[in-house]
Amino acid sequence: MIRFGFVTFGLLLFALPLLGGMVGVLLPAFGYFPPLGYEGISLLPAALFWAHPHALTALFQSLYIGLTATALSVVFVFLCLALEQEHRAVHHMMKLVRVMLGPLIALPHSTIAIALLFLLAPSGWLARLIAPEITGWMRPPAFGFVPDQSGGVLILGLMAKEIPFLLFVALAQSQSLPVKRLLTLGRLHGYHGVASWLYLIWPQLYPLLRLPLFAVLAYALSVIDMTLILGPTLPPPLAGLILQGFTDPDLAARLPASFAAFLQLILIIAGMMIWVGVAKLCRLCSILLRHHQWRMRSISLVTLPPLMILGLSFVLLALGLIAIGLWAFAKSWPFSANLPQSYGLHLWRDSAEWGLLFAQSFVIAVAASLSSIGLSMLWLEGRHWHRRSLSVMTLLLFIPLLVPQISLLFGLQVALSYLYLDGKLLTVIWLHTLYCLPYSWLVLAPALVHFDRRYITLARSLGSGPWRCFWRVKLPMIAPSLASAFSIGIAVSVALYLPTLFAGAGRIDTVTTEAVTAAANGARGGAARAALMQMALPLLGFLAVSFFLRWQQAPKKQA
Amino acid sequence: MSRKHLTAFKHLVTAVAMMGFALSSAAAMTDIAALEEEAKGQTVYFNAWGGDEKINAYISWAGQQMKERYDVSVDHVKLTDTAAAVSRILAEKTAGRADDGSVDLLWVNGENFAAMKRAGLLQDHDWVTSLPNWALTDATELPAIALDFAVPTDGRESPWGRAQLVFFYDSAYVQTPPHDAASLKDYILSHPGRFTYPQPPDFMGLSFLKQILTEVTAMPEALYQPVEEADFEAVTAPLWAYLDEVTPALWRRGTAYPQNYPAQRQLVADGEVDIYIAFNPADASSAIAQGDLPDTVRSYIHRSGTIANVHFLAIPFNSGSSAGAKLLANLLLSPEAQLRKADPAIWGDPSVLSQARLTADMQAQFAGLPKGVATLGPADLAKTLPEPHPSWVPRLEQAWLARYGAAQ
Question: Is the peptide bond before A147 cis (omega within 30 degrees of 0)?
Fold first, then answer.
């Protein structure tokens, strides 16, 4: 009973802000907004929203961008996994990817967007590199890739973020499957590795990826921070319209914006239904192919070009990240010069300002990451989980990732200010903890649930108390999972934009709110400085964890 | 609960006291003494746009002054967008939070002010005209200090500075800058891809539309009445004809716009476009000094004048430190603070004080201020156009979106 109460309490802890957020947006979405004198339930907000000349375009744009980015990410993840054992090139690439995966996952969305902006804008680094030597441009060309109204660059940016994440989850989950055995089995029957993956492994792996995938899809369907930097802007996708409505000087614009926030929720549900439908179709196709015993012996030729594109995209991203580093220390870099003409530390002179920003982000990230680990541990240790209740719990924890952040914006603001909780550091940490929880749960649950209890029984029989057993036996054994949960938690927290924006009430800034603001204001130096800190924070967490693990796993001398 | 009641009671007492003081004009000095007493130890959350390092440094100077003189702490909450703070105050009103609001003083004007006044988000009495330094302003000389975008301020906001729409161009590429809407059109058409304006609903973008509209419309007088009283289509038709003609020759062929004016300034810095627009006449001079713009950038305004307005400081209805906020507003209106603000090396924002009401020494100091390399003198900025009635803005925005709001 106590345990049950504990879980309920824990769920309330994060159900409360979501509930407050939902109510606070649903009421004005249907016309109830007393402070502006709207006291009845009506469809006026809906009518106002549809009166926007480009509402439908915005809606379809969101759907197109979210679905395309997620689908392409999944295809690439599949290809990487399936071709790892088949191609020497892919094999080498994956080796590199496995090493780089930690830092890659840790890159916040907005950092990736800034990297692409610095590279692909008409006056970006690419144009500077090829001008004027090759193109003869003395001034930036009249065209460029950013801001991009087709949404292509945004899709590219989303993929750069989501592929490493999905790959990480897939690699972790595939460890519980007999991949090698299935591949050998396939090969014995003359099937290409890709065919074996498609017919034998993927159908088992996909259900394990579904939840993280939905989180990725929900994010891509309602992305805002990357959109502000990369476009499309004319019109913006639905999330952009919502943000515009909530920042419009005309307060009545909150009504259609609330309705749009409600639509955003519907859009995500619709997006998931489309996804599930298409996934079923794909599954059907693969079953048909299997029945026809298509062994895909010559598939390699077809799969190489997309992989080359993937490789190229990551080279672009790397160049963009280097450009961030250059701008953060460039003193003067006029157009068409390949590199800055002079370097300086003028952006870093006001160390009190950026130091505070860095320290604040650091404290929030560490606190949120640790408390999400603590909560996960308490829940996982507090009861013995059945497979079924475990998956229900996982689903519950994922809800914050499935509900679009932007839809909670105003409602949460009302709820927090009602409770006098807005603009407090603890509130921001609490909200960040909610967003870190699903990730730390995802990493810790397998380690703790599959923990062999016989070690504890053995330790108990040798006379250790329960606490000693926990500290000296269990913790060291699950240390790798704890460590990776910690570093992922830091990365998640650092990347959060909207939750920080509305829980912080403008009083609490992090490197990410600073980066998005600066980039959207065209302040290149400020954006570079903030983006560099965005990279440094999770990298610090990642390095700290690697060193800790090396130290922990090193053979210790007997004292 | 008791703490809440106590604060509410304290506010009631102050409010009653304030009204009493406002009635007796001779009480200005006692007024300020009582304010100082009440403000001691308060923290004023000053919500102001934080996108300019110079302005931020100026505000932090004011904060130090407040600490030294009155033992009031000032916390500058740096906003990206004033509307975010308005939204927060609205959220607080929605939640029924009538005291200890998150905003104590807000940098505001125009549409935001009109919306806040309408929704009852401001202090509901005249607290401005009883400020000691209000006596140094002159509302007949500068009507805009009491008439914000044609909306009476009714003492709900204290004037802080003046702004005028100014065009900035890179003289490395532009030999003779345009001097009115018509010659600007010629320039755009003969230099495809080198002009743009911030995308409405951005404030600067809408201001550009208002400027062109004022110049090209056949019925400019209609703009100063509520839009409902005018024939919107007829008044604005010349504007849309103008934009239809120039849009294909804009930056990125009008398929993308910078999101705000600092973004457009960056485009000028990179040489992507030739001209940008800002409301601070000293904008380019500061940017040049900071190395953010090439030193070839200069400024101009249109012959018929450009839109000018005043920006203000307002106190929300639920501020928990309104005494401190009033003291800060009064300090920022003082000759010393206004002089400092007008110095281009510090900020370069023109004063709202009436020169005639200042001491001879102060007048001399104002006259002796240096001006930046890209800043026009008072004589060049003499021609101003008043802001249209704020009700025109949402209509202009809708109409613009319908015409140019989709890239395809």
Answer: yes
- B49 SS3 class: strand
The answer to whether the peptide bond before residue A232 is cis (omega within 30 degrees of 0) is yes
Location of structure tokens 């001779």: B26
Nearest-CA distance A418 → chain B (Å): 5
Do A507 and B45 lie within an 8 Å CB cutoff? Answer: yes
Of A45-49, A66-70, A467-471, B400-404, where does mean pLDDT reach its minimum? A467-471
- Count of CB atoms within 10 A of residue A525's CB? 19
Cβ contact B193–A142 (<8 Å): yes
DSSP state at residue A555: P
A277-301 residue pLDDT tens:
999 999 999 999 888 888 877 777 7
d(CA A268, CA A276): 12
Nearest alpha-carbon partner for B351 in B337, B332, B366, B338: B338
CA angle, B238 as apex, B234 and B243 as ends, to 5°?
Answer: 130
* Tokens 């001491």, located at residue: B359
DSSP assignment of A357-398 equals: HHHHHHHHHHHHHHHHHHHHHHHHHHSPPPHHHHHHHHHHHH
Please answer whether residues B158 and B128 qualify as being in contact, where contact means their C-beta atoms are separated by less than 8 angstroms.
yes
Q: What count of CB pairs under 8 Å joins A to B?
A: 161
In terms of DSSP bridges, do strands B297-300 and B384-385 run parallel, antiparallel, or are they unpaired? unpaired
Residue-wise pLDDT for A25-70, tens only, equals: 899 999 998 888 888 899 999 999 999 999 999 999 999 999 999 9
Among A312, A341, A370, give the residue marking a domain's end: A341
Q: What is the pTM assigned to this prediction? A: 0.87
**Claim to verify: residue A142 and residue A229 sit in the same structural domain:** yes
Contact residues, chain B, for A247 at CB < 8 Å: 81, 83-84, 87
DSSP A119-170: HHSTTSHHHHHHTTTTT--SS--S--SSS-TTSHHHHHHHHHHHHHHHHHHH
Residues B125/B157, Cβ–Cβ less than 8 Å: no
Q: What angle do CA A483, A485, A490 make, to 5 degrees?
A: 100
Residues A320 and A353 in one domain: no
Task: Tell if the CB–CB gap between A235 and B406 is shorter than 8 Å.
Answer: yes
**CB contact set of B343 (below 8 Å; sequence gap of 6+):** B369, B370
In a domain, A532, yes or no: yes
Q: Are B41 and B296 in contact (CB under 8 A)?
A: no
- Residue A34: inside a domain, yes or no? no
A399: contact with B, CB 8 A cutoff: no
B297-300 and B166-170 strand pairing: antiparallel
Mean pLDDT of A406-413: 80
Please, what's the largest Cα pairwise distance for chain A?
Answer: 80
Looking at the structure, tell me whether residues A436 and A520 fall in a common domain.
yes
pLDDT per residue as tens digits for the range B16-39: 444 444 444 444 444 788 999 999
Distance from the B87 Cα atom to the nearest Cα atom in chain A, whole angstroms: 7
ipTM confidence score: 0.84
Note down the domain range covering A277.
Answer: 53-341
Assess A342–B contact: CB distance below 8 Å, yes or no.
no
Q: B256 touching A, CB under 8 A? A: yes
Residues of chain A in contact with residue B401, where contact means CB-CB under 8 angstroms, are: 52-54, 235
Do A197 and A320 have their domain in common? Answer: yes
Sign of CA dihedral A492, A497, A503, A505: positive
Same domain, A480 and A544: yes
User: Among A341, A362, A382, which residue terminates a domain?
Assistant: A341
Show contacts of B356-365: CB within 8 Å, 24+ apart.
B356/B138, B356/B141, B357/B135, B357/B136, B357/B137, B357/B138, B358/B136, B359/B335, B362/B335, B365/B339
What is d(CA A133, CA A118) in angstroms, rounded to the nearest whole number? Answer: 20
Strand partners, A441: none
